[in-house]
Each structure stands twice: as C-alpha cells, then as structure tokens.
Write a structure and sequence with these properties.
- The protein has a 5-stranded antiparallel beta sheet, with helices on one face.
- The chain is α+β, with helices and mostly antiparallel strands and 131 residues long.
Length: 131
C-alpha cells in the first residue's frame, strides 16, 4: 500500500475542474515530502494529466466523476472514473482553439494508460506519470 493516496469525488455542480486541481496540488505537496520527483516537471505533468482527464470526463459524459491519485514506485497513477462506458475518442488537435489536444497530451506525458470498465457500467482511465 502506498503512503500517498487521494480519492476525490467530483460533482458537476461545484466546479469539478477547480476542485480536481486543488486536490491534486495538495496531493503533490504530500507526495513530494515523501519522495522527490524524478524530474523537475513531474508535478506539472501530473497536474496537467489530472486536469485533462477530469475536463474530458465532464465534457464528454454525464453524471459525477471521481479522481484517484496514488504514489507508486517510480510513478503517480492518475485515474478518473466516470459513468460512460465509451472509451476516449481522439480527435485531430486543432490550432484554431477547437481543442483535441487533451488526449494527445495525456498520451504524451504518461508512460502507460489503462482503460478499465467499472461495475456500474462506466470506466476508469488511468495514466502512469513518472515520479
């Protein structure tokens, strides 16, 4: 069992993106006290991946979602669970501000991504970020 774990339910009604970023920053402060990150940009990568996965869950699904962060040997696992069984649908990133960069960034920053079904018919998307 790791020494640093965060489980944060996120309601659509209470600014879930801001709540996820705040919870992730607090988790990262705790993780840094337990073990220094492998790279200077590791904390920024974890924060960006958490924010992107939560934003995608809010934008592309209905109902609440949840954020799970866990400090593991050599990485931080960033998982977002939502109520849709549909996997992410990558889009071609657009330079005109129309989006498409989130999944591209998650795939670029993570060393491993898993998508697993949840018992209630939804899914969890987990990305391992080097730490």
């Amino acid at each position: 069992m790791s020494a640093a774990v965060l489980d944060q339910p996120l309601s659509r009604m209470n600014q879930p993106g801001a709540a996820a970023r705040d919870a992730t920053r607090a988790f990262l402060a705790r993780a840094t006290r337990l073990r220094a990150p492998a790279k200077d940009e590791s904390a920024d990568s974890v924060l960006l991946v958490a924010a992107e996965l939560v934003a995608n869950a809010i934008r592309h699904t209905v109902g609440p979602c949840a954020l799970h962060l866990e400090l593991l040997d050599g990485s931080i696992d960033v998982c977002v669970t939502d109520h849709s069984p549909q996997p992410p649908r990558p889009r071609t990133p657009s330079t005109d501000g129309a989006g498409g960069w989130g999944w591209f960034l998650v795939k670029r920053l993570a060393t491993h991504i898993r998508i697993k079904p949840t018992p209630g018919g939804g899914k969890s998307i987990c990305a391992a970020i080097p730490w």
